[in-house]
Design brief:
The chain is an alpha/beta fold. The protein has one domain (3-203): Alpha-Beta Complex (sialyltransferase cstii, chain A). It has ten helices and seven strands. The chain has a seven-stranded parallel β-sheet, with helices on one face. One of its GO terms (molecular function) is glycosyltransferase activity.
Length: 204
């Protein structure tokens, strides 16, 4: 798809056309099979940890949005996949060098051409977003959508780092929990219930 057709599809909210740019979800979940996965959230508290080496030892390291990484000791160095719900500045794209980009947001108007045409690009289905929104009872965060997606695969283990459900706010900005459109209490309860059902999921 050329740039003009992409922007036209985005403007007209032509989901079928945009989905043509995406690998099938089955290809993504097949790539997770048997893997030990580190999913890195952006909680400020992670900067005070020493999980960096443990993160880099995972088979697959997935980060979220602009993925601030204050220090290798706390955050590690690798970014294999990057899950997005916001435009990615060129400087962050160059810094992170992800092998695959995943667009998780239902807001397609934010999706940029460079991301949509990158190798192995994945566009999260609107139906999956809507189902998780109903299950949680609020718009899910990018992290929650990734947890849901990974949990439905045959991965070996999912370790969550930097997920404190906004208790320490985010390294990505100065907004408080009241200023973002998510229910972090409901999301924390949802993740806790998922952990009870699935021993593969560990929150560090």
């Amino acid at each position: 798809m050329n740039r003009l057709r992409f922007y036209l599809a985005r403007l007209l909210r032509d989901e079928a056309a945009l989905q043509q740019l995406s690998i099938p979800q089955s290809v993504l979940t097949d790539a997770l099979e048997g893997k030990r996965i580190a999913l890195i959230g952006n909680a400020r508290a992670l900067a005070e940890s020493a999980f960096g080496a443990e993160i880099d030892a995972a088979d697959l390291v997935i980060r979220i949005n602009r993925a601030p990484m204050p220090a290798p000791a706390s955050h590690g160095t690798r970014t294999d996949w990057l899950a997005l719900a916001t435009r990615l500045p060129d400087a962050d794209r160059a810094r992170l060098e992800p092998a695959r980009l995943l667009w998780m947001s239902h807001k397609r108007k934010r999706l940029d051409y460079a991301s949509a045409t990158s190798p192995g690009f994945y566009l999260h289905p609107l139906s999956d977003y809507a189902a998780l929104k109903t299950e949680i009872g609020a718009p899910p965060t990018t992290g929650a959508m990734m947890i849901d997606l990974i949990a439905r695969s045959d991965m070996a283990e999912l370790r969550l780092y930097g997920f404190d459900f906004f208790a320490s706010q985010s390294l990505s900005g100065s907004r408080t929990a009241a200023q973002v459109p998510h229910d972090f209490g409901s999301e924390a309860a949802w993740v806790g219930a998922l952990q009870q059902r699935d021993a593969r999921i560990i929150r560090r």
